[in-house]
Automatic annotation (TrEMBL):
Transmembrane segments: none annotated. One of its GO terms (biological process) is nucleobase-containing compound metabolic process. Signal peptide: none annotated. It comes from Vulcanisaeta distributa (strain DSM 14429 / JCM 11212 / NBRC 100878 / IC-017). This is Helicase c2. GO terms for molecular function: ATP binding; DNA binding; DNA helicase activity; hydrolase activity, acting on acid anhydrides, in phosphorus-containing anhydrides. Keywords: ATP-binding, DNA-binding, Helicase, Hydrolase, Nucleotide-binding. Residues 386-503 form the ATP-dependent helicase C-terminal domain.
Length: 531
């Protein structure tokens, strides 16, 4: 039975299904196929994916299966507006100044395009058209950002509340599975103003941060009453109130890093409410292996786990995952000269033994670590075009140039593990033939992480595994997943430079664990990696 048929048949019996399949398996197409069948059976479907680019790809798939005219692309004003108007005020300014000359507000025929500019060129506002259609059409495509914003989430819930048979599909679910996190920074001056208006919590915070410069971000206030925070609240940043009202205060804390106070919150509520309101829920991911499927127990309905665990044979033959077992890059040792040298020698071997054409990507666990390496060994002298990407906005522009370069010659990108190119960007043919991850990408230990870990424990699941191991394994899976395109035609290699990758291999999805080959550093430095 085809996997979409199977999942659809299971949706008749199970309220919540989690489908875990390797990157590139075609989960987004499955989402669209299932949404199509669901609406043909009289239902309505909300598909939420990670980013605008992925939402546009879903839209293309709906065109291909002939249901584009039944879909609204509900992506927020900034994403849809050709001038990137952030809100209605900015939109109004653009209209008054004549910069935007939108005339019509209603669409006379069905929308068949996924390009918002086509609507704009037709005299329509792409944002307003899609927002209006979201209340009329049976499929709405949106992004994870809608889950974190009280205003946007409220709009989604309003739409679902008018549906009689809602199905919610969340793609790239690993990004939100363990709850949504949000934070807002508050300056000391702002705190002083709140305090001068009689806000006791601001007074308490000022007391705790006064003359205190912590080494790293610490929790300064954990338990507080929302009513106390709202006392004398005229001056309080709207974002603070928004976070508390949207996220609740199940897990919220004020932290301080020596400069700014931050309100941090973690909440399961938006996902929980979506599940409860929908008749069925389908979650798609590549990073929630069977060992992490316990995370689903934090939501109130039981879920059914479906896994596609093995790669096609030709893919298996062309993918090597070399796991170096006798070195670890910890916070204590990784900046030592000796360890930076190991990194440098390993990168050199990786580049030299790769084919003459093709892209290579090196991922450091953090921007700070990347900077320490690049500063010490700058300028990179490997004799290949090299792109160093420190922030996500650079990635959007640089990635096209990198791909172009990789199609004709050996090219290198150096970045950090959470950069958007590590997830969601598709590299075809030889655009990426190798990745190397330096250091096991555990989130940095922090007091906030410690609180999260306790919170999960109180919910009955493993705190350390959920707070630290799950994001590290998820990041690793996504990065290696960038190699899983056109693997039947090209040999591709992943190098995992840290013993913990192999040690925690049982948490990796099966397709990845089965490809991991342990290797000592010395053996690796002499190996022909692409043979
Ligand atoms: S009317 Fe639409 S296209 Fe024009 S500025 Fe506003 S949001 Fe942008």
């Amino acid at each position: 039975m085809d996997i979409a048929d199977y999942v659809y048949s299971m949706l008749r019996e199970k309220d919540v299904i989690l489908l875990n399949a390797y990157p590139g398996f075609g989960k987004s197409r499955i989402a669209v196929t299932i949404a199509k069948r669901w609406i043909n059976d009289g239902g309505q479907a909300l598909i939420i994916t990670r980013s605008r680019a992925e939402a546009l790809q879903l839209c293309e798939f709906t065109r291909q299966v002939g249901i584009r005219d039944r879909v609204s692309l509900f992506l927020g004003r900034e994403s849809m507006c050709p001038f990137n108007a952030r809100n209605s005020k900015q939109c109004l300014l653009y209209r008054l100044s004549g910069k935007c000359r939108v005339r019509k507000t209603e669409v006379s025929s069905s929308v068949m395009t996924c390009n918002s500019l086509d609507l704009f060129n037709d005299g329509l506002c792409p944002y307003e058209v899609n927002e209006a259609l979201a209340y009329q059409l049976p499929i709405v495509i949106s992004t994870h950002a809608y889950l974190s914003s009280p205003e946007l989430y409220g709009k989604l819930m309003n739409i679902i509340n008018t549906w009689n048979k809602p199905l919610v599909i969340i793609d790239e679910f690993h990004n939100v599975a363990a709850g949504l996190e949000e934070s807002v920074s508050i300056s000391i001056d702002e705190l002083r103003q709140w305090a001068s208006h009689g806000n006791d919590i601001a007074n308490k915070l000022l007391d705790r941060v006064g003359n205190y410069t912590p080494q790293r971000e610490v929790v300064v206030l954990r338990r507080f009453d929302i009513d106390d925070l709202l006392k004398g609240s005229e001056l309080i940043n709207d974002k603070v109130i928004e976070i508390l009202t949207h996220f609740g205060n199940d897990l919220c804390a004020f932290t301080y890093d020596g400069k700014l106070v931050r309100l941090r919150c973690l909440s399961l509520k938006p996902i929980h409410d979506l599940i409860m309101r929908s008749q069925r829920a389908l979650f798609l991911t590549a990073s929630i292996g069977r060992r992490f499927s316990y995370i689903m127990s934090i939501y109130s309905k039981p879920s059914y786990y479906v896994a596609v665990d093995s790669l096609p044979r030709e893919y298996r033959e062309n993918l090597s995952v070399l796991s170096i077992v006798d070195v670890e890059f910890t916070h204590r040792n990784r900046l030592l000269r000796e360890y930076l040298d190991i990194v440098n020698r390993s990168i050199k071997v990786f580049i030299e033994s790769s084919p003459p054409t093709g892209g290579l990507a090196i991922f450091f666990p953090s921007i700070e670590y990347l900077d320490s390496y690049v500063n010490q060994y700058a300028p990179p002298v490997w004799g290949v075009p090299t792109f160093v990407l420190r922030n996500s906005s650079e990635a959007v522009n640089a990635i096209g140039t990198f791909k172009e370069s990789a199609r004709v010659t050996k090219s290198l990108v150096i970045t950090y593990a959470q950069n958007p190119i590590g997830e969601g960007v598709n590299f075809l043919e030889q655009e990426l033939v190798g990745v190397m991850i330096i250091g096991f990408p555990l989130p940095q230990y922090s007091q906030w992480g410690f609180l999260k870990s306790h919170y999960y424990k109180r919910l009955g699941i493993n705190g350390f595994t959920t707070t630290y191991l799950f994001p590290a394994i998820s990041t690793t899976t996504q990065i290696i997943g960038r190699l899983l395109r056109d693997l039947d035609r090209h040999k591709k290699v992943a190098v995992l430079l840290d013993g913990r990758f192999y040690r925690y291999r049982r948490y990796m999805p099966k397709w990845l664990m089965s490809r991991m080959r342990p290797m000592k550093l010395l053996q690796f430095l002499k190996a022909s990696l692409w043979r």
